Write a sequence for this structure.
């Protein structure tokens, strides 16, 4: 079987990471895996893992260049002769859909987020099968586009349990990170994600400051990179920390690669996003490391976090609720089995392959 995945680029992000992981696992299963994207820092990993990356502009929204790009993509697909086309985003989906009209290659789309409801987004429902990464995404798609039940499959993003394994940590990295960010003896509350307004780091920062009354040794750790266009927002967060006299309470760690070790030194992980998460990858990864999670109770994360069982669900932008939840954390325990059962990379691979095989 030959599978082609299409996405705009291969830089940071959950979609990109999912494509890289699926490419690797498909190759292990003997599937010929090809990824077409505009490139990026993770593109080389596709080839390293045994797949093939083809650089092609699937990101530009320029309508004037679209006809030519469709024509060229059609010729490329004729050369590749894939058994499955799998589009991961709207521009690639439109280009692939139009290029594929005379070719009639089985077409799969994955809806990764709560896209705006319009004709442009509707293309994500044009697949012969439409994969949704959570029950919340499925409900969103069905509510706005009336996609038949039999056409939709819910396949959550898979957690790489080899990578996020409490038994495979590097103590040296943990010790160095703890020393670098002055976390020794602190109750560490971690938030993970790029620095954007949607992550609502203001509520996180205020919640940490409010929780200090009951947890004097608390420390809030923010792990996420800052794009150039978000530098102003990043500075506003640092100013907020100063205004609240929280310089000793908040640490900005930037983008990190060894997330398993960072989860492991955390006492609790928080996801306080304003916008509903399509899935809730950080919550699933933290629970795979047996770390409880506090999350705003909307979006895909409600499939993962069970209130009072493996974490707490709180109201949106509710500082006092966040502080109270931090003050009554669950004891870290055996949260991992639930992730193994429902949200493993192996489960995602099996379900995706089943769709490919039925269509191919």
């Amino acid at each position: 079987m030959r599978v082609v995945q299409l996405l705009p680029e291969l830089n940071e992000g959950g979609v990109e990471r999912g494509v890289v992981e699926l490419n690797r696992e498909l190759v292990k299963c003997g599937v010929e895996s090809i990824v077409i994207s505009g490139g990026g820092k993770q593109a080389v990993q596709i080839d390293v893992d045994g797949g093939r990356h083809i650089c092609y502009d699937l990101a530009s929204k320029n309508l004037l260049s679209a006809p030519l790009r469709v024509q060229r993509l059609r010729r490329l697909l004729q050369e590749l002769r894939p058994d499955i086309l799998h589009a991961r985003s709207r521009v690639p989906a439109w280009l692939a859909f139009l290029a594929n009209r005379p070719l009639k290659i089985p077409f799969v789309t994955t809806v990764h987020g709560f896209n705006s409801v319009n004709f442009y987004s509707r293309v994500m429902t044009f697949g012969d099968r439409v994969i949704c990464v959570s029950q919340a995404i499925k409900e969103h798609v069905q509510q706005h586009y009336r996609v038949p039940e039999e056409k939709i499959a819910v396949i959550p993003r898979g957690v790489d349990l080899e990578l996020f394994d409490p038994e495979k940590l590097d103590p040296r990295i943990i010790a160095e990170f703890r020393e670098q960010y002055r976390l020794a003896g602190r109750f560490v509350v971690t938030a993970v994600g790029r620095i954007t307004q949607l992550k609502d780091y203001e509520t996180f920062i205020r919640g940490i400051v409010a929780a200090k009354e009951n947890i004097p040794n608390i420390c809030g750790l923010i792990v996420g990179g800052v794009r150039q266009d978000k530098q102003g927002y990043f500075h506003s967060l640092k100013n907020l920390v100063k205004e609240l006299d929280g310089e000793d309470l908040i640490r900005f760690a930037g983008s990190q690669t060894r997330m398993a070790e960072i989860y492991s030194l955390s006492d609790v992980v928080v996801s306080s996003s304003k916008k509903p998460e399509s899935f809730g990858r950080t919550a699933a990864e933290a629970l795979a490391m047996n770390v409880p999670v506090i999350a705003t109770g909307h979006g895909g994360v409600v499939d993962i976090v069970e209130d009072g069982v493996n974490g707490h669900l709180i109201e949106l932008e509710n500082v006092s609720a966040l502080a109270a939840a931090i003050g009554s954390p669950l004891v870290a325990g055996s949260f991992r089995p639930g992730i193994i059962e429902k949200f493993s990379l192996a489960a995602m691979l099996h379900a995706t392959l089943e769709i490919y095989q039925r269509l191919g």
Q: What stands out?
A: The two ends are 8 Å apart (CA to CA). The chain has two domains: 2-158+344-359, 166-342. The chain has a mean pLDDT of 94. The chain is about 40% helix and 15% strand.
